[in-house]
Specification:
The structure is a single chain. By secondary structure, the protein is an alpha/beta fold. The protein has one domain: Rossmann fold (3-Layer(aba) Sandwich), CATH 3.40.50. It contains eight helices and seven strands, in the order E-H-E-H-E-H-E-H-E-H-E-H-H-E-H. Strand 2, helix 2 and strand 3 form a beta-alpha-beta unit. The longest helix is centred in the N-terminal third of the chain and has 16 residues. The chain is globular and about 45 Å long.
Length: 189
Amino acid sequence: MLNRVTVFTGSAAGHDPLYATAVTEFAHALADAGIGAVYGGGHVGLMGAFADALVERGGEVRGVMPQALVDREIAHTRLTHLEVVANMHQRKERMAELGDGFVALPGGAGTLEELFEAWTWQQLGIHAKPVALFDLGGFWQPLVQMIASMTEKGFIAPAFSDALIVEADPRALLQAMMAWTPPAPKWER
């Protein structure tokens, strides 16, 4: 069941306005499907555009943010709920607990770090939740190619690279997440 997704995206907006438009489209697809979201809680960049679009469409959006970032006044003030935690480790753990799956939208180093942690945890059997890339405009294709190379060279099992959902259409992405079945964990006995 996909009641709420954990969304990773940038605190910057990027140079192309296509990113904000696509993030808004993804938020609308969530709201229209009755699926809520949890994200990092900021009002800046694509994070803010995503939360604004979801709130304006009547969707549930929960933010999780460390106190240090709240103190810097980047917390979004119009969320369904903002949970303040002590540090970034607690933030990621809490975001993972609250979501039924993970979606990476365009972003930078923080988005990559969150994505890879969620995907690694899936491979290790720490969770059995889908992990997806919203590949608008081919944003994630260089990473997809790198993952294919790592798989070809024997560093990622094909079952795990196949388990990563890559979709350019937000509704197709949500359908793929709902139909997803977990691969066997890497170290299963």
